[in-house]
Amino acid sequence: MPGSRKLGKKSDSRKAMLRAMVTYLIENGKIETTVTRAKEVRSVAEKYITLAKNDTLHTRRQALAFITKEDVVKKLFEEVAPKYKDVNGGYTRIIKTGPRRGDAAEMCIIELTAKDKDAKK
Fold it and tell me: Which contiguous run of DSSP H or E holds residue 112?
């Protein structure tokens, strides 16, 4: 597992949480979560987007071993990764939204950045 944050969980539940969050991020484009979780999700999500830029059977199987839904892996390889084919990293961004009501945990939105041809001009 990349990173060293334990997030107050044992390793198996931490891995399950990261798998679910990365799957949801790729499926929907953004998540609202705490800043520390978002930083962990960012490192894992960017790893799998970089992996998907090389579309082979082996890389698809590697992605399927981590991402929990087959249709999300298909979306990753056919829609998300081609958007970033000319970009090396920086596929996600974290926008802080302030403290959460109740426990005052620092909240943020993590989203896939929009890399369009028009954005470069």
Answer: strand 106-112
Q: What CA–CA distance (Å, rounded) separates 40 from 36?
A: 7
Closest CA to 30 of 110, 106, 115: 110
Structure pTM? Answer: 0.88
Q: Which of 42, 51, 40, 41 is nearest to 3 (CA)?
A: 40
* Domain CATH code at residue 52: 3.90.1030.10
Range of the domain at 58: 11-120
Q: How many DSSP H helices and E strands does the chain contain?
A: 5, 3
Domain membership flag for residue 2: no
pLDDT in tens, the chain (121 residues): 556 788 888 999 999 999 999 999 999 999 999 999 999 999 999 999 999 999 999 999 999 999 999 999 999 999 999 999 999 999 999 999 999 999 999 999 999 998 655 444 4
First to last CA, the chain: 37
